[in-house]
Every structure is written in C-alpha cells, then in structure tokens.
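Summary for the funding panel

The consortium committed to producing paired sequence-structure records for every protein in the target list. Below we show the first two records in order, beginning with the earlier of the two.
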Amino acid sequence: MSETYPELISVNLNYPISEYGHMIEYVESATPCDHAVFSHAGSGVASVHCLLSASSEKRVSVFLNNLLEKCSAVKGNMVIERVKPELKSELPVWGAERGDIRVMKRLKENLDPERIFSPGRFISRI
C-alpha cells in the first residue's frame, strides 16, 4: 500500500439485479474514504475496495456495517474478503446469518467436535 493508505479493505456485495442502481449510488455517496467500485449491471454483484487511512478506520467500520444492513434489506448479502486482523472482530466478515445457520452449526459440531479446525473463523464465529 502506501504511507497515506496503509491498508485496503475489499468487500463483495450481492443483491437483486433490480437494486443495482440503488446499491451503487449508496456506495458512491456513503463511502467515507477513497475507494473503487467494480460492478456489472447484469450480475447483481459488486466489489468495493476501500483505501483505509488511520483517520478513516472507524468511519469505514460504521459504513460497512450500514452497507450490510442495506444489502440485507433487499435480500442481498456482503462478504469482506480482505481486512486487517484487528478489524475482523468489529466487522461482519461473512455478512448476515442466513436461514441455514443451524445446519452449518450442526455440521461443524459433527465434523469437528473438538473445535480444532479454524475455530471462530466462519459465519457466526462457528
């Protein structure tokens, strides 16, 4: 990165194609830092890359939590692909829980009863 922007946060969004304009407009107007958005109008998927400075870290955390709410409100979701480890506990790295979380938890319990394989690294800190 650079001295000005020592960190990068990369986020993937998904949403109904009909929400494309609203989602991109929201990202462009609400992102509190220098950023880039890569999207395709016909896919319902966008990547947002935030250049993080020391002064923008807290605002970006708030923005990403709000962005997840915006995605969830239209039946979409968000996954944070790249973020520094210190911020992971503050952010919804795997997005919002879905209806299949009980199944995922039971699978994890059956396949890894000792919780030795990457504990806490998946959605809902499974």
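The next record, for a separate protein in the list, is shown here:
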Amino acid sequence: MNKIYCQNDIQAFGSTKSKRKLAEDVAYFCIDQMMPRMKTLDINIHLDKISEADGYCLAVTDREFNLEIEKTLDEEDFITAVCHEMVHVKQFARGETQDINIFTKKWKGTEYLTAYSTVDEYINLPWEKEAYAMQEELLQKWKNIRSESL
C-alpha cells in the first residue's frame, strides 16, 4: 500500500516580499515545533493594517485557517504575533478549542463565554493564556535557531 504524504500549504499576502517570507517561515517553524506530524494544514496569512490587535486567527475548518497580522509591527513583535496566532491554529487543529457560536467557545471539553470587558479578562481566557505563554517560548526558540545559523 502506497502512503500519500500531503504538504502543509502556507501562503502570505500583502505587505512586502520579505515580510511575507518571514511570516511563512515563522508559520512553518511553529508547525514543526507544535504539530510536526500534521501535513494537511492550509493557512493563509494576510498582512494588513489592523488597528485593534496585532493579529487574528479564523478557523475555517480544523485544517484551514486565515490569519491576519499587523504589517507595521517591528520584526520581533511581528514574529511574536505570528507565533501567537499559530498557537491558536494548533488549538483548533488538535481539537483543543472549538467555536460553538459567537459567544461561546469550547476549550478542552469545557464551554466558556467569550465575552470580556477588560484586557485582563481577555488575557485570562484559557486559550489566550496558553497562546501568550507559548508565543514567548516559540520566539526564544526561533531566535536561538536563527543565531546558531549565522
């Protein structure tokens, strides 16, 4: 029996060629770090001007995602934003989180209201807690690997 291996498909749009390449490289790095066996992810990264946040993740399905990243961030914040949104990709792809409706999300089997009125409430949502913690770990690993290759 022949096995068919698919390749993850990541494409960045907008901004400059170098920012698109950086976004794609960081996304592939995050997959390698968090989901090395997943080979069927389809991720579109839109580099836009966003006023409300550094980035967003929309799960179209558990394998198809649209990310939006603020294109004017400096390099470290840009990498951090891509890492943060890729943690959300991992959460959806592994079934750790699911959107029930616009007000409710399921996280590891427990339903949560997604409404919040302060930044602290937002940061303390369990999927955000994980994303904020993991974005820093991923950033450090990225920086370490990049410095070793220079």
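Regarding this second record: The helical segments are 17-34, 75-93, 119-123, 126-148. The chain has a mean pLDDT of 93.
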